């Protein structure tokens, strides 16, 4: 697998604006203000079962850190954005679920390229398909599958995605979660152009959250849509810290990447 450096990722994004901590000029919300503000958290890449790593500890550390964040200021939900287990350790998916079931708020998962089970097995375990929409009171979450039972890197079902975006409730923030970034295909350089077009056509998608590349923890803007990466909370490689992303939504959105081991913010932005 080719790993993109921060510079390579930004080169692929081409003309996209790098987001600063300040809201970009002219970047008004494409959706009306929700009735209430809310807060949620996104983590990815736990890789339970990876050899020569304390992968169980990575999960318990995540649970503890989420509980701590929830105690500081309540979270509405958590999304774990793929690669729950490592390699052929799919028999550990129920164990990963048991860990995540101890989270203090509702949570949702996407399938990563390491989560190599059939759609039927996935649905039996988690209760929903690998492509799934969650219509919460405060937000609509689209969980887009970007792999299969063999671990292939896929762009995702563009027709299904477009259908769900068109059907989404007006005036409710819409967030897209996909494990493998649409910015590349198997070569590590070519964007998934059909997915890219859907995102460009529908600025109602407030943010797209990616996992997969453990070295990326940045945020950039594509028009009015934030493209966000959250590094990893497990595994043997990636950023030198383990962390997750926190999002706070009100009239606009504020997000920061958080190193939960050293308990500090790594970067932040508004969108």
The CATH level-2 architecture is identified as 4-Layer Sandwich
Order of helices and strands: HEEHEHEHEEHEHEEEEEE
Helical run tally? 6
Oligomer: single chain
Low-confidence region ranges: 1-6, 14-35
Helix content: 10-25%
CATH fold descriptor: Purple Acid Phosphatase, chain A, domain 2
- CATH class category name: Alpha Beta
Number of domains: 1
Task: Give the overall silhouette.
Answer: globular
* SS content category: alpha/beta
With strands numbered from the N-terminus, the spatial order across the biggest sheet is: 1-9-10-8-7-6-5
Number of strands: 13
Please, what is the average pLDDT?
89
First-residue to last-residue Cα separation: 31 Å
Which strand-content bin applies to the residues?
15-25%
CATH superfamily: Metallo-dependent phosphatases
- Radius of gyration, CA atoms, in whole angstroms: 17 Å
Described by strand count, sense and barrel closure, the largest sheet is: 7 strands, mixed
Pfam families: Metallophos (PF00149)
Protein name: 3',5'-cyclic AMP phosphodiesterase CpdA
GO molecular function, one term: hydrolase activity
Which terms summarize this structure?
single chain; 271 residues; alpha/beta; Purple Acid Phosphatase, chain A, domain 2; 7-stranded mixed beta sheet; 6-stranded mixed beta sheet; globular; Calcineurin-like_PHP; 3',5'-cyclic AMP phosphodiesterase CpdA
